[in-house]
Amino acid sequence: MAGHVELLASVPLFQRLPAKRLARLDQLMVEREYAAGETIVQEGEGGIGFFIIASGKAEVLRGANAQPVATLGPGAYFGEMAMIDDHPRSVTIRAVEPVACLVLTRWHFLAELKSDNDMAIELLHVMTERVRAAERRVEELEAKAG
Questions:
Q1: Which of 33-37, 65-69, 114-118 has the largest mean confidence?
Q2: For residues 58 and 71, is the Cβ–Cβ distance under 8 A?
Q3: CATH no. for residue 106?
Q4: Strands 77-78 and 30-34, bridge-based pairing
Q5: What is the rounded CA–CA span in Å between residue 114 and residue 117?
Q6: In angstroms, rounded to a whole number, what is the distance separating the alpha carbons of residues 134 and 10?
Q7: Which of 23, 57, 96, 121: CA 20 to 30 A from 51?
Q8: CA 54/CA 74 separation, integer angstroms
Q9: What distance in Å separates the CA atoms of residue 16 and residue 33, rounded to the nearest whole number?
């Protein structure tokens, strides 16, 4: 499978990677299709990888009552942290209509990081920026609440 470099480049985690590395990740991704109503990932299960929605719509469900909290469409992504660790999924993602996803498995991603130190370092920078941004949002919320 090839030809999704632009879609990969739109993902914040990957947008600073050069085209050569994006092309390599593109080669590692597989396309999966889900029928309307089919569960893509299940809350509480281990995360096996990262998903980008190429087409279709899916809903994000949370909690024992599977309450809808968001809708995802083409270009939306989820599971980026699952590429690093194997923590349980925090939400369920279910196809609302037929959905095609690009999937990068954890084991392919980790193997690529082990073989490409420059990519690993670049992704660490991006992840650090995201953690810092999250910390700032928490501080802002605490300041408003206090």
A1: 33-37
A2: yes
A3: 2.60.120.10
A4: unpaired
A5: 6
A6: 20
A7: 121
A8: 5
A9: 28
Strands (E), the chain: 30-34, 39-41, 49-55, 58-62, 67-72, 77-78, 92-95, 99-105
User: What pTM does this model have?
Assistant: 0.80
Domain extent at residue 67: 5-145
Q: What is the pLDDT of residues 94-121, one digit of tens each?
A: 999 999 999 999 889 889 888 988 888 8
DSSP, collapsed to helix, strand or coil, labels residue 105 as: strand
The tally of domains found in the chain comes to 1
Encoded tokens for 146 = 């206090």
pLDDT level of residue 71 (50, 70, 90 thresholds): very high
> Hunting for tokens 């089919």 — which residue is that?
38
Sign of the CA dihedral 105, 81, 133, 114? Answer: negative
Which pLDDT band holds residue 1 (cuts at 50, 70, 90)? very low
Cα–Cα separations (whole angstroms), residue 84 to 58, 72, 95, 104: 24, 22, 25, 12
Measured CA distances, 85 to 20, 41, 50, 108, 143 (Å): 25, 16, 11, 13, 31
